[in-house]
Amino acid sequence: MIIAIDGPAGSGKSTIAREVAKRLGMRYLDTGAMYRTITLLALEAGLVPESLPAAAALAAATPLRFEARSDDLTRVFVGEREVTDEIRGRVVSQHVSAVSAEPGVRTVLSQKQREEAARGDVVLEGRDIGTVVVPGADVKVFLTASIEERARRRRLQLEAQGIAQPLDELVADIAARDAHDSGRAVAPLRKAEDAVEIDTTGMSIEQVIGVVSALAEEKRAAAVLAVTRPAAEAPPGKWPISRLVRSPLDNWLYRLAYGIIPPLCRVAFRMKIVGVEHFPPTGAVVVACNHRSNLDPFFLGSACPREIHFMAKAELWKFKPVGWLVSMVGTFPVNRGEADRRAVKRALEILSGGAILGLFPEGHRQRERELGDIRPGVTLFSLREGVVTIPVVLENTDQVVRNHFLRLPRVVVRFGPPLEVPHRHLPHAERALVASERLVEAMGNLLHASAESS
Ligand code: DC
Q: How far apart are CA 162 and CA 408, in angstroms?
């Protein structure tokens, strides 16, 4: 997968691209840093401004190397020399537009960028990625923001590096760079026709990351569906999953397991179930639950009035008996951190079969009481199938194992009202954003209600 993120200076590209790459397990390429590095070298070689065409040969001969750094910035090296901080200085910033307008420089660097893209799974960030460098990118995003907002962001960035610069100076610098980048003859800054434009003014970084990640995950799922979606829908009333997900044992085992476990849980854990009336008696539903313990599926499954098919981490299947048992009760594996086609396919089949899909949108168990990061991809299933999501919060399930089953805590299962699918007329990116915001808010409210009642 290749993600192209373009936009003017200060629109948040670097932060967004870096974080999206981290979350989706992809590489990240800051193409602006490449232009900045060549600008620094061209300045040192005295090529600016008279001998700019010679900078192309310089670019071709320069061995550039990038290294991820644990704090935010990517480290940039020319051979063994590190130029990470130098290329962000004011002098380079003032001349980089002129150097990057040089056609020869662009040809050389665009080629290097295409070679990087050809290695796959990368987020490229720049000005012309979606239009010139990789017009065939899987996801194209064009970020914008008001000039004042961009100047404010740049100031914060510079301050973090110990550089102070007045806001009006930054506004002027950015305006000059905008004019230069958009007005140049070769590869001017413009939105690709098929790019999704996101105005980030007033949006939090987390929100923008949510939209971009959702676009990427949607694309991954679309690729899966193109290959796997059955040509004809299953006949009404018949579950297309029956052959794939469930086994002949499934029904009685599920009923047996969940016929015995719930009454036992209710007694042993004085289990309290709140809001179960929110559960639709029929039809496909996504159930999104917080995650504190490996026992969560049992508690949720036993509190839920209908059978849930959980998507669970593939590691559970490493120990064969456990894998066998959980498969028997309709749980299916997902390999986290990759585009797991089979898991996506099963999840969508479960929903199109009118059944219930159970997800733990935080991805991993959380130690804190608060909600962890919600992975935006979880809203994809409800959006794709047009089904409601029931938010659920479990309380105290983490205490069970921590207390070695000795002092049994009171487990509470709190269901929230169903979350409708955002309106179809909204652009896709916005639907994904609205859906994940609604989910975060609803789960947050349920946790809050839990905290108040405990
Ligand atoms: O993203 P940045 O501000 O670090 O980029 C520095 C300059 O490089 C910017 O003024 C435009 C130029 N650039 C470009 O022309 N094409 C790219 N793909 C990336 C950056």
A: 53
Would you place residue 405 in the very low, low, confident or very high pLDDT band (cuts 50, 70, 90)?
Answer: low
Q: Which atom of ligand 1 is nearest to the CA of 97?
A: 10
Q: Which helix (H) or strand (E) holds 342?
A: helix 341-352
| Residue 70 Cα to ligand 1 middle (Å) | 23
Q: Which architecture, in CATH terms, is 234-453?
A: 3-Layer(aba) Sandwich (3.40)
pTM summary value: 0.59
How far apart are the C-alpha atoms of 79 and 266, rounded to whole Å? 66
- Cα 35 to averaged position of ligand 1 atoms, centre (Å): 6
* Right CATH for 2-202 from 3.40.50.300, 3.40.630.30, 3.40.190.10, 3.40.50.2020: 3.40.50.300
- In terms of Cα–Cα distance, which of 302, 296, 309 is closest to 265? 302
Q: Which two tokens stand for residue 14?
A: 């670097």
Domain boundaries, the chain: 2-202, 234-453
Output the six-digit token pair for 254. 């599920």
| pLDDT one-digit tens code per residue, 30-53 | 999 999 999 999 999 999 999 999
Two tokens, residue 269: 């854990």
Residues linked to residue 309 through DSSP beta bridges, in sequence order: 357
Q: How many CB atoms lie within 10 A of CB 173?
A: 18
Q: Cβ–Cβ contacts within 10 Å for residue 63, how many? A: 8
Q: Ligand 1 pocket: which residues have CB below 6 Å?
A: 9, 31-32, 35-36, 96-97, 100, 126-129, 177, 181
In 202-340, which ranges are continuous DSSP H helix?
A: 205-228, 250-268, 296-303, 320-328
Is pLDDT of 69 > 90? no
186 CA distance to ligand 1 middle (Å): 13
Please answer whether residues 271 and 413 qualify as being in contact, where contact means their C-beta atoms are separated by less than 8 angstroms.
yes
Report the alpha-carbon angle 325-327-329, nearest 5: 75
Q: Tell me the C-alpha distance between 194 and 418, whole Å.
A: 34
Contact (CB, 8 A) for 381 and 288: no
362 C-beta neighbours (distance < 10 Å), count: 19
* CA–centroid distance, residue 210 to ligand 1 (Å): 24
Protein residue with least CA distance to atom 4, ligand 1? 32
What is the model's pLDDT at position 246? 44
Among 7-11, 27-31, 361-365, which stretch is predicted with the lowest mean pLDDT? Answer: 361-365
pLDDT for residue 240 is more than 60: no
